[in-house]
Amino acid sequence: MKIEGMNHFTVISSDLEKTKAFYLEILGLREGYRPPMESTGAWLYAADQKHSLLHIMAERPMPESAPGVIDHMAFTATGLQTTINILKQHGIVYKLNRMKELGVWQLFFYDPDGAKVELDFSADEPEPQQ
């Protein structure tokens, strides 16, 4: 066996519509096909990808510790300044790190239920106005 890549992340939501709106509006993901299931949820996709990237599950009890054993999920992104502007418009607190040796800007923030999200931008992106 060999791992060929990451398939998807799953987050548990206390409010499906609020969580969906967060990932659609803030991260720019799009809702797509989700096969019929007994549980309520949504599958979200990035750009024109054919496989879902993020699954949202509702109607499950929230864990005592929101991040559980997974610390965070990370996505490759573009448009650092635009993303910061969107986070500010929505009142989302964020932390920005520049990892010059890795060639990335790392932007960290939390979804409505406390899941930590990291967006990685090329170090070539201009330094944002915070």
UniProtKB/TrEMBL annotation:
Q: What GO terms are given for molecular function?
A: dioxygenase activity
Extract the SUPFAM superfamilies matched here: Glyoxalase/Bleomycin resistance protein/Dihydroxybiphenyl dioxygenase (SSF54593)
Q: Name one Pfam family in it.
A: Glyoxalase
VOC domain ranges (all copies): 5-122
Matching InterPro entries:
Glyas_Bleomycin-R_OHBP_Dase, Glyas_Fos-R_dOase_dom, VOC_core
Q: Which residues cross the membrane?
A: none
Keywords noted in UniProt: Dioxygenase, Oxidoreductase
Protein name per its UniProtKB record = Catechol 2,3-dioxygenase
